[in-house]
Amino acid sequence: MADSPQHRLGELMEASNPAFEEVMSCVFGIEDHETRAYLGLCERPGSTIEELAAALDRDRSTVTRSLSTLRDRGLVRRDRRLLDGGGYVYQYTALELPAAKELLHEALDAWTATVHDVIDEFDGTER
């Protein structure tokens, strides 16, 4: 991932049985609507913004912002397709789910290692 997302793991830890969507939103630091956009693209690879907005019943500008965030997180790629009559359109494809799951595992493992280091380094003195 290009940018390190802000983790909302505290929220995740409060849930006894979180849904996958909650885990994804918290770990990647994305909003629920962005997670829905990612999952929508998993079902409809190669969608345009207009197609995804219609499928999700969302405003085009909301979907555009969601896709921008997802691209920043490395979860979506954008490809330019030339149109027969001239011009082009962007098509979006989600990172395949197994690869996204691997990113989730890596982010959680890194966070866990950091927490273990904090625990191990604590000596009882004030900072």
From TrEMBL:
<dbReference type="InterPro" id="IPR011991">
    <property type="entry name" value="ArsR-like_HTH"/>
</dbReference>
<feature type="domain" description="Transcription regulator TrmB N-terminal">
    <location>
        <begin position="25"/>
        <end position="82"/>
    </location>
</feature>
<dbReference type="Pfam" id="PF01978">
    <property type="entry name" value="TrmB"/>
</dbReference>
<dbReference type="InterPro" id="IPR002831">
    <property type="entry name" value="Tscrpt_reg_TrmB_N"/>
</dbReference>
<protein>
    <submittedName>
        <fullName>Predicted transcriptional regulator</fullName>
    </submittedName>
</protein>
<dbReference type="InterPro" id="IPR036388">
    <property type="entry name" value="WH-like_DNA-bd_sf"/>
</dbReference>
<dbReference type="InterPro" id="IPR036390">
    <property type="entry name" value="WH_DNA-bd_sf"/>
</dbReference>
